[in-house]
Amino acid sequence: MEEKVICSEPGCENLILRSTASDTGGRCMPCKNKKESEAREADLKKNKKKVDRFAGITDRVEILKLLANPPKFDPLFEYVPYPQTKEQIYSELSPEQLDEYSKYINELIKSGAEDAEDLAGELAAFTNAELTEIQLSLIEKEEFYPDIIFRNATPEVREAIIQLLKSSDPSSLSLNSMLPALAWIGGKEIVQLFREWRENPPSWSSEFYIEPHNFSKSAGWVHTEESSRKLFLEPCYGLKRTDTDSEDSITLFEDQPDDCPWCNQKLVTLMNLPLEKLNPITWELGFKKVEITTCQICTCYETVYCNLNSEGSSEWSQHNQRPDYLPDDADDWERYPKTQMKLNPSPRLPYTASNWLVELTKTQIGGLPGWIQDEAFPCCPKCSETMVFIGQISNEDIEDYAEGIFYIFLCSNCKIGATNYQQT
Fold it and tell me: Which residue, 139, 215, 302, 309, is the most exposed by fewest CB within 10 angstroms?
């Protein structure tokens, strides 16, 4: 039997055949492979070049085009990221630049370019750009996603979609995105159409688990007896973390003394909004503050309600109904730390975060929710009305590599708060 020797790499005690050692320089194969990998990494690092694709470019449209066309990965190149976020870039576009970029995206859509519709959805979410030509191009292709593209569309666009719906075989249409697109158009004609669907459901409605008139919630509204009602508040502000605790700080994930009746873990104040101290916020909710009590574990499985008093403090609600399933490892769940947030300096458009695929910090108050799955506005357990969305917490803004979003709602008339949760 051939003699074995110890690997020559310091600290390694693997035994290898003497013939293997002569071929590997005395190292075992794991150590040999590790050394070769380290040498390759060092060589790449030594020869890697930094490339700034944006150097000398000041035109915001050209910058957006570059961002829309990222370079292929090359281990020898390190591409310098653009220093501004897309939200900042879009906010600086002039009306002329908006028109130019809108025409650019429309040409991409007509040519069938990959991801062109996503760029249009981004444009619709970040700006108030006029999108009629893009909308008509999509209707011609019978494509309606992302549905936010059709926000505030013209009567011409509205009638084109309605005519297509009436004249085509519904089974051939993408109704799951077509109906939300109509909801985003809004206006009294759409409100009336959805009301008619509620009173006389169309023949194709049986294909959906959602009643057609409830697709209005995709765009943040419900119809009432006389008109419609918004399910969100304005203005809308993104939130950013802060290390200082001041009177206008918004506190997240603060433990309460009481335990959850379902999992026996500490309840939390998911969000504490000091409304009187948030000067840009002018919501008329009837509270000086809004504290939302929940269980950060159980609300991942069921909507959790809380009762608010006249001051805005809250407690676990008697309306909560324990779900059939809850995890049996609640003791092992990592709890999010108490976190302080501040309003960003400038408001964002109320529908920006509704396209949850856009690149931005998604923790916000006001505006429309960024649903990861289907919309899930809860109904108030007292009055049965659809509750109003007041904010959301994106876990990726709290901890690195986390995911999922907590959503927060309020029925100010009944003084009931609610939370639910979604993730991919």
Answer: 309
CB count within 10 Å of CB 102 equals 20
Quote the CA–CA distance of 55 and 79 in Å, as a whole number.
Answer: 11
**In whole angstroms, what separates CA 209 from the centre of its chain?**
23
Tokens 């050209």 sit on residue? 62
Q: Is the pLDDT of residue 230 over 80?
A: yes
Contact 387/376 with Cβ under 8 angstroms?
A: no
Alpha-carbon distance values, 244 to 92, 116, 260, 349, 391 (Å): 30, 42, 29, 27, 21
Q: Is the peptide bond before 261 cis (omega within 30 degrees of 0)?
A: no
pLDDT at residue number 310:
95
**Among candidate residues 25, 122, 22, 19, the one with its CA nearest the CA of residue 64:** 122
Q: For the stretch 307-340, what's the b/e string if a residue is b when 16 or more beta carbons lie within 10 angstroms of its beta carbon?
A: bbeeebbbebbebbeeeeebeeeeeeeeebeebb
Residue 1 clears pLDDT 70, i.e. is over it = no
**Of the candidates 52, 59, 184, 146, the residue with the CA atom closest to the CA atom of residue 358:** 146
- Beta carbons of 33 and 64 less than 8 angstroms apart: no
DSSP strand pairing (339-343 vs 221-223): unpaired
**Contact (CB, 8 A) for 135 and 169:** no
Q: Calculate the alpha carbon distances from 3 to 7, 8, 13, 29 in Å.
A: 13, 15, 15, 17
Residue from 130, 111, 124, 102 nearest 357 by CA: 124
CA dihedral sign, ordered 188, 193, 198, 200: positive
Give backbone dihedrals phi and psi of 343, rounded to 5 degrees, phi first. -70, 140
The secondary element (H helix, E strand) that includes residue 273 is strand 266-273
Q: What pLDDT digit, counting tens, does each position of 93-118 carry? A: 999 999 999 999 999 999 999 999 99
Distance CA 233, CA 391 (A): 9
Quick check: 354 pLDDT over 70? yes
DSSP 8-state code for residue 385: P
Question: Alpha-carbon distance 302 to 262, whole Å?
Answer: 11
